[in-house]
Write a structure and sequence with these properties.
The protein is mainly alpha-helical and about 300 residues long. It has helices at about 1-25, 30-55, 70-75, 80, 90-105, 110-130, 135-160, 160-165, 170-190, 195-200, 205-210, 220-255, 255-275, 285-304. It is about 80% helix and about 0% strand. The longest helix has about 35 residues, at about 220-255. The protein is globular and about 60 Å long.
């Protein structure tokens, strides 16, 4: 059972990527069906998140009640699929909902990611490619209102925990992330084996080395380096470079996919820097399925 978990954790996101790529490259309309599927999936995920958050609000005296809700990552990694929706008003409404959920989740990494996406969305959809700049002002006011509303809502339910978590970033150093990074880097530096340096220590190596359950580096670059070695880190950096290369090609090639692709990389880089994506084959597949579908669409278009 443990071996199956490890195999899935290491390979599932790649399998999902190539599956979506292959189907889309063969059937040019697949991405539309995939978008509809993810929008249907979005509803139960939001409901489960709200249920989970209400339970956490009821546990404020416990440690878990004071931490951010990781279920928000299932919501935020769906943003690229949301932005594939054709009608602007629908994707705007859904993006506002995601913003509100990120605020009440008390998860600062998710909030940073969604606010960056909001900024690009506002600029590209309502300023750069719109002759009616008044719409941009209206949306900006709505976003500010949604942010204020959700912050007040979270504070009322959490005994002002939302504000205190934002104010405590300097004191708690991102919920101890700097300590996580230092611990992981110390593990890397203390390794004398050439084989371990090149090939790593295996899945969840940081957790095993520190003997702390559910502990990660909280940075995918460091996690990949220690778990899978310098060779894997180079490949991981190469993935980032390939995504950036595809992003640049979409600027003049297919502007319909540009904003969703920008949002996918924003979410990817933010969560990779301060959280974890690669080692958990759950919400990460929402991003890899999107990248696979977009790559398949580009390949399909180049053949026709």
């Amino acid at each position: 059972m443990l071996m199956l978990k490890v195999v899935l954790s290491v390979s599932l996101w790649e399998v999902i990527y190539f599956t979506f790529y292959r189907i889309q490259a063969t059937d040019g309309t697949f991405i539309i069906s995939a978008r509809k599927f993810f929008m249907l999936l979005f509803v139960p995920i939001v409901l489960l998140f709200i249920r989970s958050q209400l339970l956490r609000y009821s546990m404020l005296l416990s440690f878990v009640g004071k931490e951010g809700n990781n279920m928000i990552f299932y919501v935020i990694t769906m943003i690229p699929w949301i932005l594939l929706i054709n009608k602007r008003k629908y994707k705007t409404i859904l993006l506002i909902i995601v913003t509100i959920l990120c605020v009440i989740s008390l998860k600062r990494s998710a909030l940073i990611g969604v606010l960056l996406v909001d900024s690009f969305y506002l600029y590209i959809e309502f300023i750069k490619h719109s002759s009616n700049k008044a719409r941009a002002i209206v949306l900006f006011v709505i976003l500010i209102g949604a942010f204020s509303f959700s912050t007040n809502l979270a504070n009322n339910f959490s005994d002002n925990m939302a504000i205190s978590r934002m104010n405590s970033i300097k004191e708690d150093e991102g919920s101890g992330r700097i300590d996580h990074w230092k611990d992981t880097w110390n593990l890397v530096q203390s390794e004398s084996s050439l084989e371990k340096n090149l090939l790593g220590h295996g899945y969840c190596g940081v957790e095993v080395a520190l003997n702390e359950p559910n502990h990660s580096a909280h940075n995918d670059f460091l996690e990949v380096l220690y778990d899978y070695g310098w060779i894997a880190l180079i490949l991981y950096v190469f993935i980032h470079l390939l995504i950036i290369k595809r992003l640049k090609s979409l600027v003049g090639y297919n502007k319909r996919y540009l904003l969703p692709y920008i949002s996918s990389y924003i979410v990817f880089i933010v969560l990779s820097m301060v959280s974890h994506l690669v080692i958990y084959p759950t919400y990460f597949i929402f991003l890899t399925s999107f990248w696979g579908a977009i790559e398949g669409a580009c390949v399909k278009a180049s053949r026709s």
